[in-house]
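To the wet lab folks,

You asked to see what we're planning to order before we commit. Fair enough. Below is the target structure as tokens, and below that is the sequence we designed to fit it. If anything looks off to you, flag it before the synthesis order goes out.
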């Protein structure tokens, strides 16, 4: 059977999905996908998976995809980050039987993506991306899709999208923010860029950015002409976003925790992160339970804190405090109702006419002021102050931080004193294979092997000595006993 492409793939395989849950690192796992599907989501992506780790580590494959096979969890697209065409293809071939399409992440703007050289940090390497998409399109039995961020220039963004389509991309998701729009500078996504891309392509286009309510979804489709709309943060704070309703937080939390129990195993950190997102507004008020939620070490403990939050909210409702809280918090709905978290709008840099606009912009773009050269605690975040209290000599000055050298195999930061110039994971595999030591990573395969061999040799020597002793002191039959035994035989 021929592989479906473009709009035919969207219509038949994806069933004309319009409501899409984004691929989110450590946050779009099976339990959360099933919760979202129950409340209106029509298509989900797996969390972003690292292609090279997926190829080399069977446990990683099992924990992140193979164990999550579920009939209810379709249609499903598996997303990878990669920077090597062959590695990307190998990972995709291992995953294609467990999903409906393979997505190449070209939109992740985080520092880990910069260090690993993937995500949005590949957006200027068009020749490499063309080769990756083309090879996957030719060899895979399922379609290849891509998720990108925009350039500042609309024309360049359109050319970028057209290049990916020509290479073989069958569906393109466009996040309407640039590489630098993240964290405190997230800002508003540009639907104008998305609209221009949609008009220029002959494949389905999904939009991503500015989605907080169902009305935003409908308006985005109308304004841009896209085939579907993807939500990330909006979905995390309200899994029922695509249903167009805002249920009490505890309903979503309890339903999610039931799914976690029903479809184990689920990493505890994922569950905790979801509860923090769901209860975000309530935890600003009940901060004692915020600390308790952070310290819980098992699923039952997390469920217990969530239940305590529910009881407190219900007490407030019974006393009529929900109206007062709503008026005092500035939220559109009471804090115990699922609703989006709106990031503060960053200040616009203003040029002073002296050519210093870039300096002003740079200062505004920072989340907080950089630390003084003396490392004064007045300018350190609370988290860094805690680290400073544990390690007074810790250096927080960005200019003096050591530059990371890449691992020769996977591209992640290598150990500074590793004998193989690898990260710990790659070093462990190499040291095990070659029976070698790496003191930097605390690996002692050679030492342990030599110790074991020495113990075996000592054991053999001891055994031989004991055998010699036993043979030399074995008792000889006494004459009297021998005569008795012979007489008994005659009788």
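Sequence we intend to order:
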């Amino acid at each position: 059977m021929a592989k479906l492409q473009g709009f035919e793939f969207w219509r038949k395989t994806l069933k004309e999905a319009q409501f899409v849950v984004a691929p989110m690192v450590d946050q779009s796992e099976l339990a959360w996908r099933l919760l979202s599907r129950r409340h209106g989501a029509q298509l989900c992506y797996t969390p972003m998976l690292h292609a090279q780790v997926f190829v080399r580590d069977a446990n990683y494959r099992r924990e992140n995809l193979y164990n999550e096979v579920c009939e209810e969890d379709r249609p499903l697209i598996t997303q990878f980050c990669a920077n090597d065409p062959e590695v990307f293809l190998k990972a995709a071939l291992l995953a294609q039987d467990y999903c409906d399409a393979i997505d190449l992440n070209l939109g992740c703007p985080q520092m880990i993506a910069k260090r690993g050289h993937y995500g949005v940090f590949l957006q200027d390497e068009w020749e490499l991306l063309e080769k990756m998409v083309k090879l996957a399109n030719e060899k895979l039995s399922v379609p290849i899709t891509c998720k990108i961020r925009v350039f500042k220039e609309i024309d360049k963004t359109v050319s970028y999208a057209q290049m990916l389509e020509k290479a073989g991309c069958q569906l393109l998701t466009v996040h309407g923010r640039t590489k630098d729009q993240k964290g405190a500078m997230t800002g508003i996504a540009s639907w104008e860029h998305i609209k221009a891309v949609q008009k220029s392509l002959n494949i389905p286009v999904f939009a991503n950015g500015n989605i907080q309510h169902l009305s935003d979804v409908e308006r985005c489709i109308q304004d841009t002409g896209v085939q579907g709309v993807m939500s990330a943060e909006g979905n995390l704070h309200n899994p029922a976003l695509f249903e167009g309703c805002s249920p009490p937080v505890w309903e979503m939390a309890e339903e999610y925790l039931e799914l976690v129990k029903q479809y184990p195993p689920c990493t505890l950190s994922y569950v905790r992160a979801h509860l923090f997102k769901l209860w975000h507004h309530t935890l600003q008020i009940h901060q004692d339970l915020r600390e308790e939620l952070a310290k819980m070490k098992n699923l039952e403990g997390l469920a217990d804190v969530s239940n305590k939050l529910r009881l407190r909210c219900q007490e407030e409702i019974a006393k009529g405090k929900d109206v007062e809280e709503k008026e005092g918090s500035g939220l559109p709905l009471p804090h115990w109702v699922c609703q989006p978290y709106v990031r503060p709008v960053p200040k616009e840099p203003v040029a002073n006419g002296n050519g210093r606009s870039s300096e002003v912009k740079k200062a505004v773009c920072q989340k907080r002021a950089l630390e003084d050269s003396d490392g004064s605690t007045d300018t350190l975040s609370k988290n860094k102050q805690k680290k400073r209290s544990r390690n007074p000599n810790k250096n927080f000055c960005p200019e003096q931080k050591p530059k990371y050298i890449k691992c020769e195999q996977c591209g992640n930061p290598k150990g500074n004193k590793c004998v193989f110039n690898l990260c710990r994971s790659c070093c462990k595999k190499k040291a095990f294979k070659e029976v070698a030591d790496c003191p930097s990573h605390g690996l002692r395969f050679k030492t342990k092997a030599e110790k074991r061999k020495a113990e075996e040799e000592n054991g053999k020597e001891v055994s031989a000595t004991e055998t010699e002793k036993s043979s030399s002191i074995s008792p000889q039959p006494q004459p009297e006993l021998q005569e008795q035994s012979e007489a008994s035989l005659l009788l």
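Structural context that might help your review: The longest strand covers residues 76-81. DSSP finds 22 helices and eleven strands in the chain.

Thanks,
Computational group
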